[in-house]
Amino acid sequence: MDGFRPIPLPARRPVDTIMAMRRADSFGKRSIKTTSKEYALRLAISMTDLTTLEGKDSPEKVRALCRKAIAPAPLLDRALVAAGGAPIPSVAAVCVYPNLVAVAREALAGSGVHIASVATGFPSGQFPLEVRLDDVRRAVGEGADEIDMVISRGAFLAGEYALVADEIARVREACGAAHLKIILETGELETLDAVRHASDLAIQAALSTGPAKDGEVFIKTSTGKVTPAATMPVVLVMLEAIRDAHRETGVRIGMKPAGGIRAAKSAIAQLVMVHETLGPDWLAPHLFRFGASTLLNDLLRQLARLRRGGYAARDDFAEA
Questions:
Q1: Annotated catalytic, 220?
Q2: Does residue 120 come out as left (phi exceeding 0), alpha (psi in the -120 to 50 range) or beta?
Q3: Residue 319 pLDDT more than 90?
Q4: Rg of the Cα atoms in the chain
Q5: With contact defined as beta carbons under 8 Å apart, do 245 and 252 qualify?
Q6: Which one of 68, 200, 256, 298 is the catalytic residue?
Q7: Whole-model pTM?
Q8: CATH 3.30.1330.90 is right for the domain spanning 17-308
Q9: For residues 202 and 171, what is the distance between their CA atoms, to the nearest angstrom?
Q10: Separation between Cα atoms, residue 320 and residue 50, nearest integer Å
Q11: Which helix (H) or strand (E) holds 118?
Q12: The Cα angle at residue 111 between residues 47 and 278, in degrees rounded to 5
């Protein structure tokens, strides 16, 4: 696409910060029955984007991560099945840097686990636009099913909303058939009002390029490199933006909290919030994901505790 394309910008929707914080806090205080907890743990596993985004990432590390993504805990899985339980699901996706997408593609072939790749100059986004777009095209060309892009936070905070919207639209076009997750980096946006406006802007810009099927576009809290990230109030505000967009367009936008979610208890609280804000349709991997590198281990520990009656050691599931 040549030249700057003006995109209609959303009106600002102020957030009642106190009420948002109170409501978000309430979701972590719900009592969950054992059967519901097991269901939630399995669901959260199936929604996980198992992630490695470190400078020391290597092909072998990614292959090991892919093995874990397909079969998160083989010994526990066999024990559960032998006791008449359901097998542990695979995770939703493995998320890696673009240069390791081909490695993940080979390791995940035939598994049904998706390949997600960060792009657009992750995590800063401080690269020329054409370089960022080329980053996206290369990752898709190597086999990425999903692209996690970062917005230009500096431009957004400077009030250059049209520029941010145009860049999001261009990235979605560069994705082709790949799904797009738009990272807002909420820890740098400073206020819930800004989080809401960025959410509305991202959704409207992505949908401006043409019709979208449910789950083809996500909004995502963070790169995982900035704190705070996926706090409950932030996620609630983003879920409300998704709810309102669905009412207005009929499209179900996906949600991906990422950064700081390490405990199963936190993940379950997020699922309760999704259910009560968006409804049961969003409780599926094609519409909700957890971006995490360590959450999966605690989900497995909690699942083992429900079946064994005691906690596994913290490192029992640490190795892929």
A1: yes
A2: left
A3: no
A4: 19
A5: no
A6: 256
A7: 0.95
A8: no
A9: 11
A10: 11
A11: strand 114-118
A12: 20
Q: How far is CA 243 from CA 150, 165, 222, 272, 275, in A?
A: 22, 20, 20, 15, 11
Question: Given the structure tokens 């990235």, which residue do they identify?
Answer: 171
Q: 135 catalytic, yes or no?
A: no
Active site residue 256: yes
Both tokens of residue 307? 């079946």
Q: Nearest Cα to 113, choosing from 26, 49, 25, 38?
A: 49
> Would you call 24 exposed, middle or buried from its count of C-beta atoms within 10 A (0-12, 13-18, 19+)?
buried
Give, for 198, the enclosing helix (H) or strand (E).
helix 192-207
The catalytic residue among 77, 148, 200, 298 is: 148
| Catalytic residue chosen out of the listed positions 49, 68, 220, 298 | 220
> Rounded to 5 degrees, what are φ and ψ at 183?
-85, 120
Instruction: Dump pLDDT digits (tens) for 97-126.
Output: 999 999 999 999 999 999 999 999 999 999
Phi, psi of 319 (to 5 degrees): -90, 140
Please name the helix (run of DSSP H) or strand (run of DSSP E) that holds residue 320, with its range, or none: none
300 versus 5: the higher-pLDDT residue is: 300
Q: Could you tell me the two tokens for 35?
A: 């059967």
d(CA 81, CA 260): 32
H or E stretch at 54: none
Q: What is the length of the chain?
A: 320
Residue 135 in tokens: 């980053």
For 176-221, write each residue's pLDDT tens digit: 999 999 999 999 999 999 999 999 999 999 999 999 999 999 999 9
183 forms beta bridges with 150, 220
